[in-house]
Amino acid sequence: MNKKIFVLGLLFLYSFQTVRGVSGVNTIVDTTETLEFLDLKYFSFTVGFAQTAEISITFECTEGTITLYLVNEENFNRLMDLKMFECWKVEDRETGSLVQELSGGKWYIVILNTALADNTVSILATLEVVSDYSLVYIVLGLVFVGIVSVVSVFIIKRRRKSPSSAPAVHPVPPEDRYCHACGLAVPLHLNYCGNCGTRLTLALSVKEKDKALFTDE
User: Fold this and answer.
1) pLDDT tier at 95 (50, 70, 90 boundaries)?
2) Same-domain pairing of 37 and 95
């Protein structure tokens, strides 16, 4: 049970990072890249799933044009597999900008050199959190982990206090019976008393033995 609580704690810490994502204004790309003809370059970033963020991208080329795509993880994989995909884009521009509000998840900025020669591109991208409900999820996560911990401790204590089942008691058959005429102990496998010769029909207990002896007197 303690291992389960430990695993839940690790999952909570991981979910904290996923929920929180970014905060404030963050510069996620600030670079200058030289691309060959039809060369492709991408940059990835993550928005917490409890957040909404606004991305602002600007770029400038020195030797021609590029096409810029902004896609989520699913459509990025489709793009890389040369399949149809959905995106926001700025197509075949020497300079350009893109501002877009994004929901939680993993996102990619993809630039494709559409110039007929090597092209140098300067790109700047900033991300600003618009709304953030991560604190609510964190509190709910803490409450959940606390409830699981209390219930686990209660179950462990209850199991320790529960009485162990008593072993079954099996009656032990008597080794001898007693003659109802003279009171002598007679082995069970004999049908006649070895002392008086009386035929035995019932096995007598100690009390019955005393009763038989008292009656004979």
Assistant:
1) very high
2) yes
